[in-house]
Amino acid sequence: MTTQVKDNRDAVVIGAGPAGLAVARQLEHRHGIKTLVIDRAAAPAISWRTRYDNFRLNTTGFLSHLPGQRIPLTAGRWPTREDMVRYFDNYVRRQNITLELGCEVNGVDRAEGGWRLDTSSGARAGSGSRSAHRHISCDAPSDRFHPTSCSSSSPGHPRARSIRLSGSPSA
Fold first, then answer.
1. How many Å apart are CA 87 and CA 62, to the nearest integer?
2. What is the number of domains present in the chain?
């Protein structure tokens, strides 16, 4: 069973890692494009949450911030994993980034006037489809999806194509 999920977002960013959050923020704040960030993880920046306890950023916090919001000085020169997790959570909240977590994207296809996403979030028991988004951007690590690059501004773009995403790790 496929369920159509309509929303008023013009863009979808697949992946709520640091790059996905930064792209979503810039689309909304600099270009006025309503954006939704979809990720199959239960929280944004999941890779930071699963690093070892004593992990520290290897560049200074002053140079490592996302657009529009600095890492707090209280994090010190070399922010810890917990500092970065707090930063990303606060970034989502302060930058008003709309997230849909726990949602897997199975495919992206051309649709009239935009793109259609085949997702796991439609009906609880089946898959869903989000329709007519003008912009798609992926923040997917190379070990999760093939192909890893799936960014295009519109279906008429010369490099635009239908994209099948595989959730299995690469060989």
1. 13
2. 1
Its domain, for residue 52, covers 2-164
Q: CA distances (Å), 83 to each of 11, 41, 68, 149, 169, in order?
A: 29, 20, 17, 29, 29
Name every residue whose Cβ is closer than 8 Å to that of residue 151 and which is 6 or more positions away in sequence: 136, 137, 138
Report yes or no on 96 lying in a domain.
yes
> Residue 169: inside a domain, yes or no?
no
pLDDT in tens, 38-85: 999 999 999 999 988 899 988 998 899 999 999 999 999 999 999 999
Write out pLDDT tens, residues 146-167.
333 444 444 444 444 444 443 3
What CATH number is attached to the domain comprising 101? 3.50.50.60
Q: Which two tokens stand for residue 48?
A: 């930071």
